[in-house]
Amino acid sequence: MDALKQELKENIIEQLNLEEFTVKDIDNDDALFGDGLGLDSIDALELIVMLDKDYGIKLTDPEKSKEIFQSINVLAEYITEHRTK
Amino acid sequence: MQKAVYIQEASLITPLGFSISENVSAIEKEQSGIQEQHCTDILDSPFYAAMIASEQIDAAFDKLGDPSKFMKLEKMMLLSVAETLEKSNLHISEKTALIIATTKGSIDALDPDNSFTKERAYLPVLGKKIQSFFGFKQEPIVVSNACVSGILAVAVAKRLIQSNVYENAVVVAGDLVSKFTVTGFNTFQALSDGPCKPYSKYRNGISIGEAAASVVISSEKNKTTAIQVVGDGSCNDANHISGPSRTGEGLLKSVQSAMQEAKVSANNIDLISAHGTATIYNDEMEAIAFNRTNLQNIPLHSLKGYYGHTLGASGLVEAIVGFEAMKQNKLFTSLGYEESGISKPLNIIQKLEKRTVNTFLKTASGFGGSNAAVLFKKISIEQ
Amino acid sequence: MQNGTVVCNGKEIVSVENEQTFSAFAKQVYKDQHWEYPKFFKMDRLSKLTFLTAELLINSVTISSEEKESLAVVFSNKSASLDTDRKYQDSINSIENFYPSPAVFVYTLPNIGMGEVCIRHKIQGENAFFVFDDFNPLFLKQYAESLTQNNKARQVLCGWTEIDEKGYNSFLYLASPNGTLPHTEETIIKLYTQS
User: Which of B69, C4, C46, C102 has a C-alpha 20 to 30 A away from that of B241?
Assistant: First the structure.
């Protein structure tokens, strides 16, 4: 799971162009949206594409995505359970 | 005192028909142009859109030119301008502007399977095609400002005529249903799972559409009843590049600017043709903005239930239907509306009604925080 | 701003000698100016070009937040958003690797860069984006004047922000009653060629 969390942080930084962040800046429990990383609605949609592309998970319910993207920990758990890639 | 500017003639090329009368007839019967589409070269799953068959365009275009030499959007726009010019008898002079409104133009030229060169995707190239076809003397002015383009172009024409840069203008707006835009809105999770439902509780996104429309705008009237362009505004939300301001700032400022210029107060307006795309955020924003400007009791419709969201064409297509509402004194139904799903009330038109429509407001909003509002007044020649 | 150089009010403030991609150049300008606006890195090339040029201009003039709120913005270019459109098109061409990106799609409209500038400076005035075959100073002058004559704006931020496969070129100016140069086509052309 730790390797996945590391990978997620790297992917998120790259995919979302978070140029001024490093992996060290993201705590596993940090809020990804709102005050934490300050991601917005377009970032949420990008993460949905990332879930499909990198982990083979298709998400179509935006409400569900709010739950899953709460933090790296929550996201990693969800991916571990549902990944097809 | 700024000089008066009028709408002289108009034409529509839409899935509801290639004449204004066909369009109005379909709208009166509450017939939608939106259908479930199974075009796997656009999207791998079915989607809801209002589309015009290329064969239909080519058949109509045949009397104007060789259909194989022009792209779909070019043909749609050329058909529309040809009809508008014929009806208006406009003499194209050095003081005639050609204004073209589109968001993506012939974006299908970028498709690797498309036989036309990629150069055709350049908007000035589209402009030149239209200019040279009809012999317009001035370089085309292309307005590409997201989904407000169609109605913003009307405001641009009015402003340039009022400052005497031009005496009249042909404004043509158009956009296509393409793989580019459909996959894009799909990745935004913005596509509806049925015909769109503006302002409704169970609305869940846009149904995309394609259309072309054109008008002649002039400092001269040419009919017994004229439609005057009396006010405009096009202000930015300064909030987010894809989400509208939650308090409707830009739309509010645009509407107020138009009303102030026209010296029209809220209760003077007889009909509002709003943007109503059926996304959760757009419709809610409009409800807030219209309430803040005291327009919540004015009869209002969105025409996206008939045409889908025709992007850069929408502002002009829907305004032209509004002109018919003025000429015929009718309120057209806001198709697709069911139970209200907005937090502030609006007076949504739920059935066709005869009503005097002397003053008409058209609004639009779009990506990039754009908004536009234009006010029109019916004038009879005795005045 | 073009070819690795930035000129502001006649003074060259950035110049890079070695060949750099626009993206690297833009990042350098951002860092040299010590700006803190992380959203910059999410922008497409056209929006970055627009943003940088506008930021330098707005920072160099005295303009209150009230004036900014009603500032009109009138930008233009030749290629609209084709630079980004091609990138988006690439992402939908492949059947095996079909993952269109919402972050790319949102920038496939030429007015988004203008929107970014408005968001940054809380500009809620008139705005419009035009497309011409070439830089059109006469049109910009005429349209800006039609806005002021109609009381739609007091000051107008105008210009040209073009980026395509061949290169990039942006030129912005502020038309204002407080200005020192006459608002004529000749003045605009002179400033454009000098920059």
Answer: C4
Residue B134 neighbours by CB distance under 10 Å: 15
- Shortest Cα distance from C72 to chain B (angstroms)? 8
Q: Which residues of A touch B241 (CB under 8 A)?
A: 42
CA distance B242 to chain A (A): 8
- Predicted confidence (pLDDT) per residue in C92-145, tens digit: 998 888 999 999 999 999 999 999 999 999 999 999 999 999 999 999 999 999
Structural domain containing residue B65: 6-218
Picking from B321, B308, B62, the residue whose alpha carbon sits closest to that of residue B198 is B308
Contact C103 A42 (CB under 8 A): yes
CA B220 vs CA B6, B93, B97, B216: distances in Å:
7, 14, 15, 10
Residues C76, C176 contacting (CB under 8 angstroms) = no
Cβ within 8 Å of C, B 266-305: none
pTM greater than 0.90 (yes/no)? yes
B104 inside 8 A of chain C by CB: yes
Q: How does pLDDT run across A7-45, given as a tens digit for each residue?
A: 999 999 999 999 888 999 999 998 888 777 888 899 999
* pLDDT, tens digit, 9 for 90 and up, residues B205-226: 999 999 999 999 999 987 776 8
Does the interface ipTM go beyond 0.90? yes
The last residue of a domain, from among B186, B218, B250: B218
Q: How many helices (H) and strands (E) does chain A have?
A: 4, 0
Phi-psi group of B332: left, alpha or beta (phi > 0 → left; psi -120 to 50 → alpha; rest → beta): beta
B3: contact with C, CB 8 A cutoff = no
Same domain, B27 and B164: yes
CA-to-CA distance for B375 and B259, rounded, in angstroms? Answer: 7
**CB contact A45 to B (< 8 Å):** yes
Q: Provide, as residue numbers in chain C, all residues whose Cβ is less than 8 Å from the Cβ of A47.
A: none
pLDDT value at position B383?
45
- Interatomic CA distance for residues C170 and C4, integer angstroms: 12
Look at chain B and report how many structural domains it folds into: 2
